[in-house]
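Agenda item 2: NAP complex prediction
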Amino acid sequence: MKDSDKIALITGITGQDGSYLCELLLAKGYKVHGVVRRTSNMLRSRIEHLRRNEEIYDQQLFLHYGDLSDSTTLRRIVGDVRPMELYHLAGQSHVGLSFEIPESTCEEAGMATLRLLEVARSQPQPVKFYHASSSEIFGNASEIPQTENTPLRPTSPYGCAKAFATQLARVYRESHGLYVCNGILYNHESPRRGENFVTRKIARAAARIARNLDNELVLGNLESQRDWGRAQDYVQAMWLMLQHETADDYVVATGETHSVREFVDAAFAVVDLPWEKYVKHDPSFDRPTEPARLVGCADKIRETLSWKPAGSFRQLVHEMVEAELAAIDPRF
Ligand code: NAP
Ligand code: F7E
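Presented output:
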């Protein structure tokens, strides 16, 4: 089948990954359907440019109201849209917040995935299902780097919920023969990252301090290490997974780790400021528990699906700070 005959459904289309994935699929000629929640504010900033484009909106891109807690609506949407590919990305995605709101986090990341797997299983046509798993399932990882076979030892409510959903996806693949892939993605960032994730928070503060709009950046643990990649590369990996003949699980990562301190240092270097003067510590941003060193081995997806990430850590930091500077003053 040609890509231009394909229909995809994305949950979480308004999020960082959903918006990039939507653009990728539209560029391939897909008809893209997205599930959006009802909010008091109609502006959906990450996909607003697509919604305002008359050649795209309601021609190639269609939005449907739905919520992960509302299984009758989800079932109706899937039944009406009849997607060939279902990318399930929606849910509360902040690990730190999952300690504050564990029940809704587990409902969204765990139970909602089960509901959607059931919906996919009951469709008359085959549905290829992508589940947005996470490196957080490895938590206190028993080995470095982690692979698809590393045991699951999550250290946060978010990680527990993703581990539950990851195992369920495997069970549905093995017991019901459903085509379902777990993308075990390590942190991936972009100018569209939510403002309360550490990379965006740092990039935004560096730009605002440089333009005299702020005078400090308050952070938690500077020594935390993460394997940070580019979101645009990671949505390409999601698509590649569903193009393969057989469903499987794949780690998607750069294989490199950097500390929060290194990210701060690189971001402030872009605006040529000494970060030590502006960065303060507030223990309320520390987490009750942090995963051990999470670093992924992406050999399987590189070898099987020829996935290749573009760009380095320095380029990512640069891109994020430049985007913040441009948002303050588009002439730059
Ligand atoms: P994000 O920017 O936080 O986007 C989350 C999306 O889920 C938004 O579209 C949000 O809608 C939607 N959503 C949340 N709760 C919902 C609900 N109850 N009903 C319907 N929609 C709901 O997350 P992301 O960074 O794009 O990540 C996408 C997925 O990958 C998430 O499942 C995340 O846990 C997982 N993941 C992300 C990373 C990463 O580094 N980014 C790594 C591994 C796994 P609103 O716009 O209305 O809030
Ligand atoms: O934290 C430390 C914090 O919130 C990264 C999600 O996409 O990736 C993401 O989860 C590190 C942590 O991302 C602040 O303690 C210090 O060690 O940007 P983050 P995360 O928790 O790694 C995984 C793979 C996902 O699946 C998730 O959906 O940075 N840190 N100071 C801070 N973090 C935040 N947010 N804010 C701070 O002030």
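Discussion summary: The pocket of NAP (ligand 1) is lined by residues 12, 14-18, 37, 39, 67-69, 89-93, 108, 132, 134, 185, 187-188, 194 (CB under 6 Å).
Owner for follow-up: CH.
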